[in-house]
Amino acid sequence: MTGGNVETYLWGNQLKDSINLGEYSPELDDNGIYILPASGEYEIRVFQPRSQARKDKKPQYWMSINIK
Question: Which of 3, 14, 29, 32 has CB 3.0 to 4.6 Å from 61, enough for a Cys bridge?
Answer without folding.
Answer: 3
